Amino acid sequence: MPSADEIDARVERLHASTVVVNTYGGPYTSAHVLRKFRTGHWREDLETFEEGNPPFVANVLAPEMRQGGVDIILGGYAQIADFALWVRDLEESGGAGTFVSSVEDMRQAKARGQIGIQICLHGPESIQGSLELLQAHRTLGATVFTLCSSYRNLITDGCREPGNAGLSLYGRRVVAELNRLKIAVDVSHISERGFWDVLELSTTAPIVTHSAAKAVCDSPRNLKDEQIKALAEAGGYFGVIFFPAYLARENASLEHLLDHLDHIAQLVGPEYVGLGADFCTYGWEWTTVNWAHFGMPERRYKFPKDIEHITQWKNITRGLIRRGYTDAEIQGILGTNYLRIIEKIIS
Q1: Which of 18, 104, 148, 227 could bond to 331 as cystine, CB 3.0-4.6 Å?
Q2: What digits encode the pLDDT tens for the residues 168-190?
């Protein structure tokens, strides 16, 4: 076994040579966080900005991502108004961050020392039910669309709907339009029937930005082995979530996260798996959540031990080294797999 210093040197080399991607920022990168940081309020209007309040990207997002060795983060839940919040914050960040809407953008952002923000739309609310707005979002740079949360919407049932319905007629039109516009179809949260509908209908490989393996932790949010296999056969991507309730029934840790990575890598190959944290914000602890939504008892849940925060991302790299992954496999999990797959979809 190499020494701790040798492992740390390898970690630094791997992060320096790889575009490291968090394929789901979650609440950590929502427009609400920008508002809260800059104003201390949860309002929806631009007038809540106050002169002198520092930009979120420059003062929180970029420093914390750099400390963790993360270059790109998928963020947004973007409605049209949210772009204005991001644009203003980035303009005032002193070049700390930038939007990225292509793989070349991601590579260039890393080369310039900037963190990159890839915009993701979330559900029919992000386009106000209008397919025409998808074109506008694509023009503005959105390249990923998450079809649903865990419950039913106009597009599909989510994974917690007892009816397990698949894509609606409208949902089928949405998938076709996403394919036409070269926007990646994210099937995180979707019902099992909806998953198979997308696999059948989509002309591009679907992706899972943030989920986990049901065989390792039996949660409705996690995918069965046959789903993971079908996703890989289609050329898709699976980002492993850090959310504790989906990694282990009790006391989730970094080792549980690595167990999910191992399971998927052994099932379909390490070239299809990556990392999509879905981090919380301000304390990294969910305390005011309806835990019945997650099928969990009511209690305080922290993010997994040793990866509670994006600043600890390199602990995953250390864990992958301990578990015997090669440099090429680790680089793939850190970001190269995602870049290869998303480039085929959005280019």
Answers
A1: 18
A2: 999 999 999 999 999 999 999 99
Q: What is the CATH number of the domain that holds 66?
A: 3.20.20.140
Among residues 202, 141, 208, which one has the least CA distance to residue 174? 202
Position 329, amino acid: E
Of 177, 284, 188, 281, nearest to 228 by C-alpha is 188
Q: What is the CA radius of gyration of the chain?
A: 19
Say how far apart CA 204 and CA 183 lie, in whole Å.
9
Please write the tens of the pLDDT for every residue from 74-130. 997 777 888 888 998 999 999 999 999 999 999 999 999 999 999 999 999 899 888
**Domain boundaries, position 340:** 4-346
Based on the structure, what is the number of domains in the chain?
1
d(CA 172, CA 179): 11
Characterise 223 by phi-psi region: left (phi > 0), alpha (psi -120 to 50), beta (else): beta
